[in-house]
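# step 3/5: fold
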Amino acid sequence: MYKTQKSYINRDKKMIDLINENYSLLLCLQHFHIDFSVGNMTVKQMCEDYHMNLNVFIVIANLYNGFFPSSHDIDQIDDIHSIISYLKSNHSFFLDDKYPELKYYLEKIKKNQNNKDFFLIEQFFYDYYEEVLEHFQYEDDIAFPYFCSLLDDQPSSQQNVFSAREYQNHHTDIETKLTDLKNLLLKHIRIESDLNTKRKFLNTLFGLEFDLKIHSVIEEKILVPLIEKIEQQKNG
C-alpha cells in the first residue's frame, strides 16, 4: 500500500529508505549535486561523503516530506552559502529542464487545437515565463551577490542600497500564478487534444508547482531571516 504520510528526516535515517518512500527527494539530491546511488548510507554519512552541511540538508529535505522547519531548526543553520547554491541549482533546473518541457507539450497541443481559448493559455504561459526570467535574473544578479558579499564580509556596491527586506518586498509570488495556469486548464478551458499530452503537461505543472513552493519557502522563511540576523549584527 502507498504510504501517504512521509517520515521526518533525521541524520540516522537511511537515504535508500527515504527515497523509496518519497521519490521527490531525488530532485532534492540533484539540487545539492548528490548522486542518486546512495548505497546503505545514512543521511549523516551521505552528507559527510559529499561535504554537505547536515543541518541544511535535513531542513530542506524535510520540506519535500511536508515538514516545515522550526525557528530552532533555522537557528542551527551555519552554512548559508549552501542554501544559495541550492537555489541557484533550482534556477537552472527550472530554466533548462522544466520550462522547455512545458513549451514542448504546449506546442504539441497547439498543433491539434482549434479552440480560441487555447490562446489564452498560451499567452498566460509566456507572460508568466517572462516574469519568472525577471525574478531569477534579479536574484542571480543582485540579491545573491549581495548576500554572498555580506557572508564573506566583502565590500559590495549593493550594501548601502540593498537589504534582505528590499529583497522580500521585491519577491514575487510566482508559484501562485503557476497554480492559476493549472486551474485554467482544469476548471475553465477545455482543450481538444490527446489526453496523453494534456496529462503530461499537467503532470509537469503539478511537479513544478510543488518545487516552486519549496523554493519560495526556502527564500522567505529560511534565507531572509538568516540574512536579516547577519545585517542586524553588522549594524550593531
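# step 4/5: annotate
The mean pLDDT is 88.
# step 5/5: archive (pending)
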